[in-house]
Every structure is written in structure tokens, then in C-alpha cells.
């Protein structure tokens, strides 16, 4: 078995699981129920932020915060109706297993809450390849702050220069840059290539299957086993 001092960090929503647009619909309806009319494209761009930060990003700091908890609860209830139907992207499980088989410690880094993360892990169906998981509940600030990535690295005892993070949003790439970790962007979450590279992505691929096919020339190949 190759050395295990390397960490492959993965966002989940929009990266391993095809869920971003489900979140958009759930947030759109939750906001509508709260009396807020927000365009779906704006919600899509905010996906990847923790719920409280997403609401602030969309509604601004001057909003009446009294309704924030109701908005989050409504989103969680609406999104929860999809839990038994969530699907992983093709190649997601194979990608995690390929990296784990090559000695990488695979860590999930997500804004999902515990019950939601359980549903996502069932959809991805690769628990045998996953070493640990880190959620926004574990840190004071979620992405784009570096805290989630730094916490994930601490769980497996790996330094930033020996890690690669895979995500699908600008928030993911910004968090990587701030944590000093190489970032890989995937287009399957719906964010354009140029937005990901401008946010700091070292490389961009279509989806997990595309990254798996090109692992040998990806940023993962720049972190050799030792």
C-alpha cells in the first residue's frame, strides 16, 4: 500500500451527488414562503454556502433576521423529501475508491447537516473508501473561509501541500486558496469554467468520471506517495 500521508478532500453536493438544482428549488420555495422573491440563478450561485450565510448572501445584512430560522427549516423540510431519491454522479464512487486504493485518505468536506450527509453518503455508496467527514457544524465559519478544509486536514493529520480538494463552486475554490490546498473544479454543479478558474481552481473537469479518466495528469499526480 502506498504511503497514506495524502488527503483527497471532496465537497459532496454538486461534486459527488447531483443535488445542486434540488437545493435551488428547495431554497426558492422556502424563500417564497417567507415572502422573498429571489431569482433561481442567484440562488444557484449561492449554493455551497452554509444555510445562514446563503440567506445573508441572498437577502443582505439589513434584512429582518427574525425569519431566518423559518427559512432554513422550510428548506430542510423541502429538501428532505428528496433524500430517498438522491443520485450520485457517474464515476463518483469509482473515483473515491481509486484514490483510496492508491493510498489517499478520502475526506468529505460539506455544509450538509448530519441527516442530510447520511442521505448523501447512501447515494454515493462508497463508505469503504471514506476515511472521515467534516461539516460546517464542526467550525466557526463555513466555506469560503478555510476553516472546513483546515479542520478536514486535522482529522487525518495531513499538511496542505499534501492535499487536493475537489469541489464545484467558487466558494470551494476560494476556501482552497485560503487554506493553501490545490483546488480542482468540476462543472457538474453548473458553475462555469471561467468562474472556477478565477476563484483559484488549478484544473477543471466535467464531472467525477472525467477526473477519474484523467487522474494521471491531474493535480493529484503532483502529490506523489512517499
From TrEMBL:
Coiled coil: none annotated. Its EC number is 3.-.-.-. Keywords: Hydrolase. It comes from the Bacteria. GO terms for molecular function: hydrolase activity. The keyword Ion transport does not apply. NCBIfam families: HAD-SF-IA-v1. This is HAD family hydrolase. It comes from Streptomyces lateritius. The lineage of its organism: Bacteria, Bacillati, Actinomycetota, Actinomycetes, Kitasatosporales.
Amino acid at each position: 500500500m502506498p504511503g497514506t500521508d495524502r488527503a483527497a478532500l471532496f465537497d459532496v453536493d454538486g461534486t459527488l451527488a447531483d443535488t445542486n438544482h434540488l437545493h435551488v428549488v428547495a431554497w426558492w420555495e422556502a424563500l417564497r414562503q417567507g415572502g422573498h422573491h429571489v431569482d433561481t440563478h442567484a440562488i444557484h450561485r449561492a449554493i455551497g454556502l452554509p444555510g445562514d450565510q446563503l440567506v445573508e448572501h441572498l437577502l443582505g445584512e439589513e434584512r429582518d433576521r427574525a425569519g431566518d430560522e423559518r427559512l432554513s427549516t422550510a428548506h430542510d423540510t423541502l429538501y428532505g423529501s428528496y433524500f430517498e431519491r438522491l443520485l450520485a454522479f457517474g464515476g463518483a464512487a469509482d473515483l473515491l475508491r481509486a484514490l483510496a486504493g492508491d493510498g489517499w485518505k478520502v475526506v468529505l468536506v460539506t455544509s450538509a447537516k448530519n441527516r442530510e450527509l447520511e442521505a448523501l453518503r447512501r447515494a454515493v455508496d462508497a463508505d469503504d473508501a471514506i476515511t472521515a467527514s467534516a461539516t460546517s457544524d464542526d467550525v466557526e465559519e463555513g466555506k469560503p473561509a478555510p476553516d472546513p478544509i483546515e479542520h478536514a486536514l486535522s482529522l487525518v493529520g495531513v499538511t496542505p501541500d499534501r492535499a487536493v480538494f475537489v469541489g464545484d463552486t467558487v466558494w470551494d475554490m476560494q476556501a482552497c486558496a485560503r487554506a493553501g490546498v490545490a483546488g480542482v473544479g468540476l462543472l457538474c454543479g453548473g458553475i462555469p469554467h471561467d468562474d472556477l478558474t478565477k476563484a483559484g481552481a488549478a484544473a477543471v473537469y466535467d464531472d467525477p468520471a472525467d477526473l477519474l479518466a484523467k487522474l494521471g495528469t491531474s493535480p493529484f499526480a503532483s502529490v506523489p506517495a512517499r
